[in-house]
Amino acid sequence: MSSLERKREKHSPFTLNPDPRRKTSAEIVTEARHSLRTLRTQRPFTPRDDHRQLFGETSSRAQDGRPPSTFSLYALNFEVPDSRPGSGTRLSPLEHKPRLPVAQDEDPDPVRPMALPKPPSDPLELKRGAVGARARFLRAGSLTTLPSVARPTEVWEIVNSDSSPEQRELSAKGRGRRAPYVEPTDRERRDKDSGGPSNPAPPRTNSVSGLRFPGGVDSSIRPGEGTGAGAGARTELGTELGNRDKSASQAAEDQSVVWNVKIFPLLQELESIAAGGSEDAVERLCDVCDCLHGALAEQGMLGRRCRKRAGLLRALFCLIDLNSAQLNLQLAKLTLELNVSGKNLLNICKLIFKISRSESNDILFQNNSIIDSLLCVLRCEDVCGSGEAVLYCVGTLKFLSGNSALLRLLLAKDCVGVATLLIQKLHPLAQPDHTQFTIAGHIHVQLTATLRNLADLPESRPLFVSHCTLTELCLVLRHHHGDQDICTNIARVFSKLSSYSECCLALAQTPGCYTLFIELLSKHQRKQDLVVRLLFTLGNLTSRSSEARKHLFTTEGCMSVLLGLYHTYHGKWDPPPAHTPPARDTCNPRTSPLGWRESKDVLVKLVRVLANMSIHPAVGPTLAANTDLIHYLLDTLELRSMQESEELLVNVAATINNLSFYQEDSSVVRDRGLTVAKLLLKLLLSSSMDGMLEATRVFGNLSQSREVCDFIIQNKVHQFVVTLLDSKSPEVCFSACGVLTNLALDPPSRTTLTQEGAHTKLADCLRDFGPVDWQLAGLVCQTLWNLTEEGGTETDPPSTLNNQEREALLEVLSLYLNEEDALQWTSGDDMRDFHRLCWELEFLPVAQRLRDRIQTQTD
Predict the structure, then answer these.
(1) What is the mean pLDDT of the chain?
(2) How many other C-beta atoms lie within 10 A of the C-beta of residue 353?
(3) Nearest-angstrom CA–CA distance, 80 and 309
(4) 38, 39, 56, 41: which is closest to 533 by C-alpha?
(5) Among 442, 359, 367, 364, which residue's Cα sits nearest to residue 399?
């Protein structure tokens, strides 16, 4: 080696990478930025609501204006004329002087004018008159009074259609189709004319004794009926419409035969069992209901295809008063298969909801296909017309999703897809002036709570992505940004799913999501459980994507909102005294111990977002120059203790470490480096390994300042850093080497480090970690290079190695500079290639120069 080369080598301490190939500034910055790190933190805890209610105790909704979770249901709450058909005739407007109907063979008196009818004074007379008028209308036999008859093609399709679940679902979409007319009984006429049955609802009892079908099995569903006037009408219609109507009429007659042979005997059996009151009556009734369902499905009589559907429903509704959850669930499933609508649909959904409120009934839902029926209702029902029924239907799914077994069952039945479809159906109701806006909000509360539970399952993540559910939920947040219940539930969904790459990417690609989150944080600053989850989600987004860091920072109002949150939750109050029970009032975070702990959780998530954003090269310098931000961070370090705020202080130190990387003149961290170093001493000397590690990393950046280096030597911090070289953690040793590398640039500090035995510890560190971490091995060699630099002053002679240290170090270097020996501990082709690359780029150049220097000093 020439004297010129030795001279140049002597004055080249390791402030840059010693690779002989001159790297560009971009490569140097990219390589150095590996020291900037994103932060991890725990996901906020989601409390479990032990009370199954539509709206929990913490709901922001007023109790007076929300649907009830507790109610009573009896058989008489249901309406049997659910399927009563229209007359088939469109009535014309009445003339100015209406005339009474007359028989077809009568002519009105041409001389005497007809008087207008007058209401009788006695209400009973009115009832009797109504019955008589009804009878006269039926006797008239006019074509306009005949019940409507379906078109032949429709009848043929109804009778001969298959009864698979898919086709039953399709038939549910056509609820507007009216069922065939069923002749009412005399009792029905009396009840209708008198405004309802005179008997009150029967008391609820667990016994089946004493239950009776009204008047036995209803006469409208007895066998042999349905072939009188209705048959004549079909014959008359067949004459008018041709031979095709004969096939439809024949199909209807075939259904009548099936009814008499298969259906009616099962209804009689239901009546007999209910009247008997035996101990196993409920089990037997459930078995008969299963047989009835199978018979109706086999004959294609589900939906609205059954001609005597009204009587069938009446018979089923009578069994509800038995107050058996198992039986009522069977009845509800069969009733939904018959496509009830209106009030009956609402009451059935409320009945299922009532059953699901008890966790002891969860097993019934596992052994019943009622979940399929509920999902079918959500797919097919019109939210505007059946909003309350949909509400209780979704509320049931929310309760069931709290059971782990039923949760997986819901996922297997594509509950995520059905929920997403329902969200899309609710979007048109999102205008505040819409008449259904309130009920839509109630449904969203239940729906988002269900999705919150489904998000716990790993198998649900691909479904949330494939159904674009996250994008739809962002739209719901825009429409209901003032509803804290909805916003909190969706924030819980996002906080769970954003922890995983595929969901995080899908959310990051949603247009305007960052603007939406910032607006919500600004609007609900005091809603701690919402704020902490939104911040956690933003932390996940910014930890995975450089674009996310830039997008969030450039969002309008981002920094003002984040700093406003820091100001709101950064109170200067003391932690609660030991053994003090938590206060019940948690509304004011500055007065209650629980509020103090919650505010700390918000700050942890907030600081994490700031640390992640600072990694971006266009964002970091701006944050480092933000006086308010640095003030809050340093204030947190000063006021908080490691005992009560360890995670918060570690995150603050990591944020300062990222910001201290940028050494621009505008950097506030650089200007206040000495203050930062003083505040970090309590982390460095704490018992927390994470705290020591983060503080050491900050000292590695700040020690580039001569002022900070003097502070480290004067306060004996260097002794602690040298001791860290004994750590079994490569990360701790790496951070300690960063501080020592900068300290060794100063001759007096170099001598001090030699006296502390830094040479020996560095050689041991090289021997222990070299084969498994060549980046650390390269940094150790850089530190040794600076420590063995020739030169000094009269008071601080040059640092040299003794013969024993020199021989030990040369032995290790010679071993690791041989490629075969260095890589012999690496297994696997992929890892071997990676280690070879690190060995060639990070270790080999500097190790060769260090070996040559030591050999020269020996000579």
Answers:
(1) 77
(2) 25
(3) 9
(4) 41
(5) 359
